[in-house]
What we know:
Elements: E1 11-14, H1 33-43, H2 58-64, H3 87-109, E2 118-122, E3 125-128, E4 131-134, E5 140-142, E6 147-151, H4 153-161, H5 167-186, H6 188-197, H7 202-227, H8 235-247, H9 250-258, H10 271-284
Parallel strand pairs: 1-2, 2-6
Antiparallel strand pairs: 3-4, 5-6
The protein binds zinc ion.
Zinc ion (ZN) binds next to helix 5 and helix 7.
Amino acid sequence: MDxxxxxxxxxxxxxxxxxxxGIPGGGVAAGGIGAVIIALIxxxxxxxxxxxxxxxxxxxxxxQSQPQTQPQxxxxxxQTDSTPADTTGQFVEKILGSTNDVWGKVFQxxxxxxxxxTLVLYSGRTSGGCxxxxxxxxxxxxxxxxxxxxxxxxxxxxxxxxxxGGDFAYAYVIAHEIGHHVQNExxxxxxxxxxxxxxxxxxxxxxxxxxxxxxxDCFAGVxxxxxxxxxxxxxxxxxxxxxxxxxxxxxxxxKQGRGxxxxxxxxxxxxxxxxxxxxxGLKGGDPNQCDTFKGAYSSL
Length: 300
Ligand SMILES: [Zn+2]
């Protein structure tokens, strides 16, 4: 894909290089990349980092007090709206901009207004509305401050450990996180959280999580479909994204981690499910086909 042809630019808060509230001296160093990888991929694409980030971060409560009324207000704290100087930063800004284009139009057609999210680029470690983010957590969306947190080193991890890289595969990661923002905008995240809280068992709560994650995959596919009008998306591009979607299926991750898969503990969906829902969005380009909350769990 030629990402430079994509429309618009996204709100990037670039905290790499020590600016904008990043905590210097964070955990980039000290080997252990291989050892950390399982923890990393287990969290990969998570929507609820509050439970894994330890919470209790002072930055969180300030944002939490008024999460809805002024979602953009915290931008002033970071270095927003300046285009990153490096290619990776520019790539992320373009992909984010194209998700704004796609979802802005989808929302408009439905008579709704889409609030554009902010994407925080950081290196090693940073704080945010959901607590402290570090690169071991992987990319995630924080519904409390409507920001995606991304350490771009993660793209290197994908290349070496998670089914390979490629621009469209990296874009899929971003589009998936934006899918969680769309869920947040639509009130789906809140509903899911309530359903999880009242779930009778951990397995039942995990099923809600799987439905959420597969819907974010489907939304990422919808982005891919609508983006094809601006840039040619080749079979290779699609294969790379599918390869990533498959590599991060819970079954594959768990087999890699402990040699067998435990379906009840799945939180993101199997390789087959993730592939299926990404493809559904990609082929149809219709968010209405992304209702992963409908029907029996076994039919996902
Ligand atoms: Zn996710």
